[in-house]
Design a protein that fits this description.
- The structure is a homodimer of 348-residue chains.
- The first copy, chain A, is of the alpha+beta class.
- The first copy, chain A, has three domains: 63 residues, Orthogonal Bundle (Arc Repressor Mutant, subunit A); 166 residues, Beta-Lactamase (2-Layer Sandwich); 94 residues, Enolase-like, domain 1 (2-Layer Sandwich).
- The longest helix of chain A has 22 residues.
- At the A-B interface, strand 4, strand 5, strand 6 and helix 9 of A face strand 4, strand 5, strand 6 and helix 9 of B.
- Chain A binds a DNA duplex (30 and 30 nucleotides) through helix 3.
DNA sequence: TGTTAGCACTCAACTCGTTAGAGTGCTAAC
DNA sequence: GTTAGCACTCTAACGAGTTGAGTGCTAACA
């Protein structure tokens, strides 16, 4: 069967209406509230076709129709294309900048928490923001200093000004001058290298050079390795989990609990992040509908994600999680907006 | 009316039974399953008395009885006293150490997350752990160093080895020697002071001493102030929020959503933390039942908290949040256990 | 050939009355 | 003081009946 103009109009009308009301929508409603001027009977015939084609379905025989995943997919694709066309047409004509929603904050961590919250408040859905992440960051600067007898502070600054620090317990004492020498030695050898590039050869050379401080150097390198590890697991901030309860179709006990559990267990969100980082090569916004999401517990939801990028190339993901019956247009708009703001914020 | 031995036995039986089944318990059940050898009619009379005294209540006329907040209170106080007596009797006789449940971890932050999780898994309730917090921490060590042109890294180590760091944008360049001098100057002036003790007099003296680097010193002091601020809001880790759904009396939509919201908005838990830090002067475990909790959204729950203490005197709180119908004995036992482990962990 | 009116049919949701069962309070007897 | 017995109350579960929204199909219409 073919999809003609009229069918598209009816499908859109069904989806729009369902998004608004959340109730299955019947043929009479469509006949009354569209400019098609067709009777309910004709609409019924068309709807039977649309159902056969898999775009809509009936919860039960004598109910109206609701969109299927495929129906939403069609709607979203259509909508995105139209939006793109609209954008192309007026180019940068007015590109109305919405006022900056994000408070100014100093620390990246706080900024991202803020983004998660702002998104949650604005969209009324659950949100997640993954911190920027980059493989193979290089070491920019290392500094060790003795803060008291037996305790040495090691500070490691990675590319992109990511700071890591540890306190190392050290049995032997170290005087200020030696400390200075060690610092110079460490920096001249390790600075500029990626964490992965520190191999055995480098380690043994450093240890040898350090003489009596060989053990200490080992400890420091261990600390660097630990920094690498803690850099590896992606930090994720979530917000608005309780928004889930606003949507009856998600708020029955088992579904809600699974969803909230996923939001709590941030490791599980990694799927979502990596998935959209992979596919999102064109930097666009991705919409996952129902079964399309890579996370099991979100099969009854839709997920909209976008990636943002730092100057240094590190990429992060942000996204919202809501019911399939979601105001896609508004969400995509909002996410696009926040994404822009975030890119700007990192560019100062 | 007086509370005699028999009434106490019946009250305990009602509560025990209700904790197990979650159903209102009737007179016949009590008559069958206690060693009192009384008929249901007698039990009924006693239960009528207990109801009049406010320890139990009926959801509706023809149902069994459930414990009231006062009933739980009586039960818990009684239980705690008995436990204490038992403990006193056998002194340290066997003091069976349960195996260490906590994985060894390096960073305090991870340790506390771990505690929250372990508690949640072990008790099947929602849990929270507040990071140790101490007012008036003194500064132990400050170090600034230039990591690249125009960017200066400031590291501040507070008492208890709490490390803070910031990157300061600095327009004027600074050579290594001057940097050293500034460090010495800063440390000799500020080290040993509490954050609050840095007053205008000290600031202006430092600024004057620093000469051309006066502005930089100001920036560094600002960074210290920021560190103080970020130290001020208590870090709280939560876990097991979804456990709430396991208890039907809490899992209706509005209640669950409020509770989860509170667990998400960690600031609201501050009440709970400060409250138990205040009252918990004897270092014991506190049980809040229903209306007793200082947090609005937990009026339908019970909360059990304990404080732990670091060597340096900083105190933190841990607690579990569950239904009033909670296995108090097991929970108190578990919390006591974790508390001991935590105290030990910080003592190495 | 596409569109429409009409009609029989289906199904969920609601209402209402009935019943069963658990539990109580009260009274009178032990 | 304790107990058996009985009338009473209230919820939960069940089932029948009703309503209303919506459908599919057919036949007539433009």
């Amino acid at each position: 069967m073919e999809m003609d103009e009229r069918k598209i109009k009816i499908l859109k009308a069904v989806i729009r209406n369902y998004l608004e009301t959340g109730e299955p929508v019947g043929s009479r409603t469509i006949s009354k509230y569209t400019d098609l001027n067709l009777s309910s009977a004709t609409i019924r015939n068309e709807m039977a076709d649309l159902e056969e084609m898999g775009y809509i379905l009936q919860p039960h025989t004598s109910a109206g129709r609701i969109p299927s995943d495929a129906g939403y997919r069609f709607y979203v694709d259509n909508m995105m294309r139209e939006q793109q066309e609209k954008l192309d047409k007026r180019e940068n004509e007015l590109n109305k900048k919405e006022e900056l929603l994000l408070e100014k904050v100093d620390r990246v961590e706080d900024l991202l928490k803020n983004v998660a919250k702002t998104l949650a408040v604005n969209t009324n859905y659950a949100t997640m923001v993954a911190a920027p992440h980059k493989n193979g960051r290089t070491i920019k600067f290392i500094q060790i200093s003795q803060i008291e007898k037996g305790k040495i502070l090691a500070v490691i600054v990675l590319e992109g000004n990511v700071i890591k620090n540890t306190i190392i317990e050290n049995l032997t004492d170290i005087d200020t001058e030696d400390c200075l020498k060690l610092n110079i030695m460490l920096n001249s050898t390790v600075a500029g290298l990626a964490l992965e590039e520190i191999n055995l050869a480098i380690i043994s050379r450093l240890t040898a050079q350090a003489g009596e401080y060989g053990m200490l150097i080992r400890d420091i390198l261990d600390a660097i390795a630990a920094a690498a590890a803690s850099e590896d697991d992606i930090q994720i901030y979530t917000s608005g989990a309780t928004n889930i309860f606003k949507y009856p179709e998600l708020s029955d006990n088992t579904k809600a609990s699974k969803l909230i559990y996923t939001l709590e267990e941030k490791k599980m969100l990694a799927n979502l992040v990596t998935d959209s980082l992979d596919k999102d090569s064109d930097g666009d916004i991705k919409v996952y509908i129902g079964e399309e999401t890579p996370v099991e517990s979100m099969k009854d939801c839709s997920v909209v994600t976008a990636t943002y990028e730092l100057e240094d190339g590190a990429k992060g993901t942000l996204g919202i999680i809501g019911p399939k019956r979601m105001d896609y247009e508004k969400v995509v708009e909002t996410i696009k907006n926040i994404k822009t703001q975030l890119n700007d914020a990192f560019k100062h």
